[in-house]
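Hi V.,

Quick status before I head out on leave. The structure for the redesign project is tokenized and pasted below; the design run finished overnight.
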């Protein structure tokens, strides 16, 4: 069941502050309420320290594509909740996920994401209603008139289920061909219904949820080129004839063969000048280090330079879950450390990293990683080993949280100094003698656990100092 709420930040608006939101969301005890109130003057007095908060100060959202099956991972959820003010279900709202068989709708995975977002005060982008891909076979098999009613029914059912919950919908996705033709892409919709299917989809969408912003979304339209010209002509035509369209999404999947175009900002601006909002909807930039950071900064600055650019969504959180993970295109590494690209995006938003924030690795490159192995195992316990490796700069200290599953207990720790949380299940381990590591150097600590040989502990991100 989806909790209804009044939309507050659609396309920018009421500032959200990730840390305050996290504190308020954690519990309602009087003690933490005092903490939250005490935090307020401090957080408003300083530059924002998270992507969502910094973007909100610029009247924009900063979102991430989210997969329902990762929400149970503590670090994934913690990073999402701390940093982002909008989510896009990466696959869970697509046609094959929500209507795998004609007229039979299945919203549970998408609901999981929407409910999570709502519980954290985040907005949701809907992705996507009409797309040639991830389309169940039964749709492709329909004749024209059946297909038209199936398309309209799909839009109506899905948008009705989420009515009032979605700030912007990708009504139609990727309907144009790549290359110089400027033609529409062949798809069951295009082939059987002709160009008019796009207009019809937007009209049906407007009739269903008049409050949602209705977007056309595509890739390789990020600079001025034949494909973006064709989309531009369509939007111009829609605006002149009163076809309901509110926004255009620029996916912005970049890599060395398809870099951030030099006319990126100008392209966003020419669409905005047609009277639609523009949104960066699936941003990822393959690369690493300073080059990647510079590109991220440029994209963020381009959005900020266009008044009608209402928000940015990155297509995933840690690199390891990216659809093209080998290109390490995202803002967080596999251990959820902030990359130089993160710092560049935050700083372009006018935010700044907080040196007192235990989640902040500080200087770009000065991070560390923690990897876990079970060194020995026996009937009722095991010896665990965590290897700490410094990033591309030297570090003088580190800390890692290690969480045991009750009734497991840690009997002893070596080469590290533990402190415990109240539950007795989470130990934070800091160096005993081995805090200083040269760039790329490693050390390790070990511990003995009794009370069960499994499951292995959960080892959190390494924080360097
Ligand atoms: O990231 C999505 C990936 O998990 C899916 O396997 C893939 C299937 O087509 O879709 C990816 O997301 C796409 C998005 O929905 C539309 N634009 C391109 C994205 C990357 O392929």
């Amino acid at each position: 069941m989806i909790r209804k709420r009044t939309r507050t930040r659609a396309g920018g608006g009421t500032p959200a502050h990730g840390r305050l939101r996290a504190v308020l969301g954690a519990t309602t005890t009087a003690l933490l309420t005092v903490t939250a109130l005490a935090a307020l003057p401090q957080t408003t007095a300083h530059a924002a320290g998270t992507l969502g908060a910094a973007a909100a100060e610029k009247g924009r959202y900063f979102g991430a594509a989210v997969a329902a099956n990762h929400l149970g991972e503590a670090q994934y959820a913690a990073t999402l909740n701390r940093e982002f003010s909008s989510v896009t279900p990466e696959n869970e709202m697509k046609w094959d996920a929500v209507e795998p068989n004609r007229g039979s709708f299945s919203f549970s995975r998408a609901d999981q994401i929407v409910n999570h977002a709502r519980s954290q005060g985040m907005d949701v982008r809907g992705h996507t209603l009409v797309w040639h891909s991830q389309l169940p076979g039964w749709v492709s098999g329909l004749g024209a008139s059946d297909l038209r009613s199936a398309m309209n029914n799909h839009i109506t059912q899905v948008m009705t289920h989420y009515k009032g919950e979605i700030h912007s919908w990708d009504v139609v996705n990727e309907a144009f061909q790549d290359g110089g033709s400027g033609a529409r892409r062949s798809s069951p919709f295009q082939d059987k219904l002709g160009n008019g299917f796009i207009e019809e989809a937007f009209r049906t969408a407007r009739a269903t949820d008049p409050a949602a912003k209705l977007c056309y979304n595509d890739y390789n339209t990020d600079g001025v080129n034949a494909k973006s010209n064709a989309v531009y002509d369509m939007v111009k035509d829609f605006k002149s004839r009163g076809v309901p369209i509110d926004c255009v999404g620029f996916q912005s999947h970049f890599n060395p063969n398809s870099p951030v175009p030099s006319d990126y900002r100008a392209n966003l601006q020419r669409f905005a000048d047609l009277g639609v909002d523009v949104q960066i909807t699936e941003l990822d930039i393959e690369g690493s280090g300073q080059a990647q950071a510079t590109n991220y900064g440029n994209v963020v600055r381009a959005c900020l330079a266009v008044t009608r650019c209402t928000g940015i969504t990155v297509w995933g959180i840690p690199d390891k879950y990216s659809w093209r993970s080998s290109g390490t295109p995202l803002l967080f590494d596999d251990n959820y450390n902030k990359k130089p690209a993160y710092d560049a995006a935050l700083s372009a938003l006018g935010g700044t990293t907080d040196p007192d924030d235990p989640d902040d690795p500080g200087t770009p490159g000065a991070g560390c990683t923690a990897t876990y192995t079970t060194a020995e195992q026996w009937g009722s316990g095991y010896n665990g080993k965590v290897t700490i490796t410094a990033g591309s700069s030297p570090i003088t200290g580190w800390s890692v949280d290690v969480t045991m599953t009750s009734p497991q207990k840690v009997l002893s720790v070596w080469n590290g100094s533990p402190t415990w949380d109240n539950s007795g299940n989470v130990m934070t381990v800091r160096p005993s003698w081995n805090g200083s590591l040269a760039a790329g150097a490693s050390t390790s600590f070990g511990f003995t656990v009794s009370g069960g040989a499994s499951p292995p502990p959960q080892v959190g991100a390494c924080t360097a100092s």
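Above is the designed sequence. Residues 144-161 form the longest helix (18 residues).

G. will cover questions while I'm gone.

Best,
W.
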